[in-house]
Design brief:
The chain is mainly alpha-helical. The chain has 7 helices and no strands.
């Protein structure tokens, strides 16, 4: 079942169960995916759908940080629930140990030895873990390993 089909199914369930917040988030994500389809003039692959979903999740996490620093607890709670709804559609996240293994393998593959080569390592690693790990954590692990 593709992400769009799953969203449609869950949207119907949310309507039946009168879950307004979940319905709203699903509609926003569905609209983003459909806008991307229109922009590219084709159906999206699973990877492209995941890219859109990751972008939506990242936007909400950024908003969460902003609202936290501004002391807007009402908005923090709303965004937090949206993040929880979106995370259901994300692939299973890699553990830190699994991620560290991938980081070390990638560093060996590209023969990186210093922080100056961090861009090369990140460029090689991100396609491997797309949607399965947070970029900030990956960045931190790569920096630790190259230090």
């Amino acid at each position: 079942m593709s992400l769009l089909e799953r969203l449609n199914h869950d949207m119907k369930q949310a309507m039946k169960n009168k879950e307004k917040d979940k319905l709203s988030v699903i509609r926003m994500v569905k609209a983003s995916i459909q806008n991307e389809q229109i922009k590219l003039s084709q159906d999206l692959s699973e990877e492209q759908e995941l890219t859109v979903l990751t972008r939506e999740l990242k936007q909400r996490k950024d908003s969460l940080q902003e609202f936290n620093s501004a002391g807007r607890q009402d908005l923090v709670n709303k965004i937090q629930s949206e993040i929880e709804i979106l995370e259901v559609y994300m692939p299973v996240q890699l553990s830190e140990e699994e991620l560290l293994k991938i980081v070390n393998e990638t560093i060996s593959e590209v023969n990186a030895s210093s922080k100056a080569e961090m861009g090369k390592v990140m460029g090689a690693i991100m396609p491997k873990i797309k949607g399965k790990a947070d970029g900030t954590l990956v960045n931190k692990l790569v920096l630790q390993q190259l230090s």
